[in-house]
Structures are given as structure tokens and as C-alpha cells.
Amino acid sequence: MAEEMLELGQTIKDEPSFMAPDGDYSFMVKGWDVSMYQPRDENSKIPACRQVDVTLLIPYKDEMGNPVWGTKVEHFKLLARLKFVITNFFVACGIGKRGDEFKLDFDQCVGKTGTCKIVQQVGGNGNLYSRIDEFYSPDVAPQVRVNDGMPFVKPDTPNYGYGY
Q1: Strand 67-77, strand 113-122: pairing
Q2: Pairing of strands 49-61, 67-77
Q3: What 8-state DSSP symbol labels residue 9?
Q4: Could you tell me if 87 and 109 are in contact, meaning their C-beta atoms sit under 8 angstroms apart?
Q5: What is the pLDDT of residue 119?
Q6: Fewer Cβ close by (within 10 Å): the C or N end of the chain?
Q7: Do residues 57 and 69 make contact, with C-beta atoms less than 8 angstroms apart?
Q8: Rounded CA separation 42/63 (Å)
Q9: Residue ranges per domain, the chain?
Q10: Which whole-number Å values give the CA distances from 137 to 100, 104, 134, 144, in the listed order?
């Protein structure tokens, strides 16, 4: 998944950041890419390393009850001590079970669905943001999710005119 480039003169629109209320949500894996993680300061607990940036589709309703087709990028650091995070994600996608061995092949996750817990928290800059707190294994995932019945992508606008 390559980075989209903007062109001078192109029309752009500010899109709100992902701000789902606390709760359990269904997600679908849209794609992934590899990048480099760079710590913000030398006291970081995580060193510079490669990371996999996975794009998740998570529909939700905003504070007014309007549907939002959100995308959330989850960053998986490729460090041995953090492999449990990647394992939790693969299990949530239905790829293997706890205790299984996993090949680091994120292509097998694309199109898969799962359940995650989202929480809101205040960042260091004082702004509120939503983050994924947990990926649930299918055998313990909540049976009711906040976004049940919502499609993962925005439905096409119906064509009520003639000429179809």
C-alpha cells in the first residue's frame, strides 16, 4: 500500500481523525505497509526499528449518531519482545490460535475481520484520541459490538435517475 501523493492544484478536504467512542468493534483489514519507527527522544523504551502499518476499516457512529466509515492505522513494531502484540492481532483475524507459530506474512490478514476494544484517552498534547486497547481472540470476543450491522465501507449512493 503505497503512500498517496498530492498534486499542486488538487482539491483536498480535511477529514476528521478516527474518534470512535469506547466499546467493542468489528474491524476489517484493508491493507498494510512497512515503515521505520523513529523514537521521539533518546529515552524511548522502544528503539528505532521497522514496523508494519496495518490499515483497519472500523465503521462507527459519531456523537450525533451519524455513521462514520473510519480507518485506523495500527503500528506493529517488529521487535521480538513485542511479538505477542502481532500474535494477538493474527489470532483476532482468525489466523491460528494461541500457542501456534505464525509466519510474519501480513498479506494473509487482508480482508479478514475480527473484534477489538477501542478506548479514548488524552494524549500528551491534551487532545482526545481513540486507540485500540485489545484485539480479541474469536473464542472470547464479545457477541455484541457497537458497530454490529454497519458495513465496513460506505455504501454507494443509490442512483435514482434514469440511465442505469
Answers
A1: unpaired
A2: antiparallel
A3: T
A4: no
A5: 96
A6: C
A7: yes
A8: 39
A9: 23-39+47-136
A10: 13, 18, 10, 14
